[in-house]
Design brief:
The structure is a homodimer. The longest helix of chain A is centred in the middle third of the chain and has 17 residues, at 208-224. In chain A, helix 1 (21-28) crosses helix 3, helix 5 (92-104) crosses helix 13 (310-326) and helix 6 packs parallel to helix 7. Chain A has 13 helices and twelve strands. The first copy, chain A, has helices at residues 21-28, 32-39, 47-60, 66-73, 92-104, 122-132, 148-155, 179-192, 208-224, 239-251, 264-276, 295-299, 310-326, and strands spanning 78-83, 110-115, 137-140, 160-163, 174-177, 197-201, 227-231, 258-261, 286-291, 304-307, 334-337, 340-342. The first copy, chain A, binds a DNA duplex through residues 18, 20-22, 30-34, 36-37, 40, 44-46, 49, 64-65, 67-74.
Chain lengths: 345, 345
DNA sequence: CACATGTTATGCAACGTTGCAATTGTGAAT
DNA sequence: ATTCACAATTGCAACGTTGCATAACATGTG
């Protein structure tokens, strides 16, 4: 039928010889260019031709070669997740990855994950991606108010989305948990339980969320006429130290009767300490934590919590990023996730 | 000086024009081929030439274009992690990824992660990678005795490494936690605490580890002359159900006085149920769990545990895989991780 | 001087893709 | 018949890299 290399023996040791545009061209008797154009929906082609190409492509199971496309167009069809090393939110990484993976299922995109070992090296990671055009877009988490990674990508006009807002003037895509609402909800709930002295336990003051929560906490406690207290400087605290803090707190005369905790890891440690100190949650004091994993509800079935759905966040971040890559403008790509209260009793 | 396109204005909108072999060729006055050859350590080149090229490459910050290399050689410089959706081991995904990331730091490899949503779709994932040569090697976890993914990759002679052994005749690279030792250690420890009726709580009977642990458990209990019992069929059990099981167990007349649990998630739920049922661990009964995350030691500081270092496993898996990709043969790429006991009191 | 022998460097083609300029075919208008 | 407009298709070059076959040069040998 056709001219050369009909089926086997094209050099590569693989079982079935790779299907390329050339294969389809030979099968259909069309030229490479036509096949390529047709597959990308060229409107100048005859309908008959387009059908023929589409059919052949499907039958042969053609999938564009990533290297070819990338070399020619510069498009990598890769999105990169910069994975923060923090383990405050238990199961955060897994859920985020699953969420992203779910959202790119069926698309041409692949996910590459770049674990971050030290926060202050994160600029290097971004620099590398920017310089080597190693992805079409980036997802970052644990965003700070003046996050240098954000700054770099804005400057380079590179598509990205952040989990968390920033304070930059130039708008950029983000998806964020509404921590102000979280704080307000939690305070109101504690107020309704007749708490008078409420403490906020919060770490990682490098994130924007930190500031948002603190501000909202103060506003809400003021409104409710409740004494507010913040346990700060615990971002580096180990679980053991955190537990000790809980133990000390349990012994304090003027201890809080309501606690709001924004980290699961800290919640576990703190509760451990409080219980060891003889305090019974739900009686001596109330605690509300921000829930992201399935573990804490199992562990503390009676504790109130407010949920952030990290799997959904991963999906949303991805959708925003893909639209950004397509060229949508930043202003239209900013969404918030509403906290979901889970009150017990 | 040189002929064409000296510095700027090469079309791409980027700030600094991309450094390619061509750039180095122009700077050094050598040909493309020579530069390429030199950078790959061609021994036929004069030392002077090699130095000149190396110096220029370093000064310009040359990094080979991935698409170019991939197109020409078929090498993707990518390793793929197929991420099982199981959340038995808390923090497993994050540690595994960090471990792999740490091991490829400084190499040309990137990590792509493919989340698995349904186990029975895992063959499709592998098929895709195999057909499209989308990675140079694959890491799989939660390996089964006759794992079809392993079978496929063996058949295709494709580089991979499994976290977990198999029963296949053809050898393949693996790194595995020594669960037989784990079971034996745990039983001995319980025996030394005068336990008489020991129960093994274990889920996911699709993994090889399941069988290894069960066998070793029976052997060890027989040797110690202890009554053995296995709580089976809990692989699909939700934390709530698991907790209920713990509660029921606490009320049982002939309840075990020693429990071995191979999953953190199940440990948490089970302990919750046991405690709710009024049992005090360390007094009424002893429990030893397999520890992978930092959470459980915080939560249960008094419980004995045996640790598997997932971060280290990720690193080892990667090293094995890379050596496999380099062509080392499978037999030499099989290693075991020794369980690390953490006895309290 | 012609020729073989190394040593060192290079030209060319190819991997799979796409964008553009150019070509062919078709029918209608001059 | 020639030209024109339009529709449909195609050839060519290029993206960055590497392997092979060849070239250029110096040196030694008959």
């Amino acid at each position: 039928m056709s001219s050369k290399t009909t089926s086997s023996g094209n050099g590569r040791g693989s079982a079935n010889p790779r299907v390329t545009l050339r294969t389809i061209a030979e099968v259909t008797g069309l030229s490479l260019s036509t096949v390529s154009l047709s597959l990308r929906g060229g409107t100048t082609l005859k309908q008959e031709t387009r059908d023929k190409v589409a059919e052949a492509a499907k039958k042969l199971g053609y999938i564009p070669d990533r290297a070819g496309v990338r070399l020619r167009t510069g498009k990598t069809n890769v999105i990169a997740l910069v994975l923060d090393g923090a383990e405050d939110s238990i199961d955060f990484a897994r859920q985020m990855i699953q969420g992203i993976g779910n959202a790119i299922k069926g698309t041409r995109y692949h996910l590459t994950v770049i674990p971050e070992f030290e926060r202050n090296l994160s600029a290097d990671t971004i620099r590398y991606i920017l310089d080597n055009r190693t992805a079409d877009g980036v997802v970052i988490t644990h965003t700070g108010p003046r996050d240098k990674r954000v700054q770099m990508m804005i400057d380079a006009d590179f598509p990205f989305v952040s989990h968390g807002r920033t304070e930059f003037y130039t708008p950029h895509p983000y998806h964020d948990f509404h921590s102000e609402v979280f704080a307000a909800m939690a305070v109101e709930r504690l107020a309704s339980k007749d708490c008078k002295r409420v403490m906020l336990v919060i770490g990682d003051d490098s994130t924007t969320n930190y500031h948002n929560i603190v501000t909202a906490f103060h506003k809400a406690t003021a409104r409710a006429g409740i004494e507010a207290r913040i346990l700060e400087g615990t971002q580096g605290a180990s679980p053991a130290e955190m537990r000790k803090i809980g133990l000390e707190l349990a012994a304090e005369a003027n201890r809080p009767d309501g606690i709001i905790c924004d980290s699961e890891m800290r919640t576990i440690a703190l509760v451990g300490g409080l219980q060891e100190g003889g305090r019974v949650l739900g009686r001596d004091l109330h605690l509300i934590y921000k829930q992201t994993s399935g573990i804490l509800p199992t562990l503390f079935p009676d504790l109130d919590s407010i949920r952030e759905d990290v799997f959904a966040a991963g999906g949303e971040l991805t959708r925003l990023l893909l639209r950004r890559i397509e060229g949508d403008d930043a202003e239209s790509l900013q969404t918030m996730a509403e906290p979901q209260p889970h009150w017990r009793s």
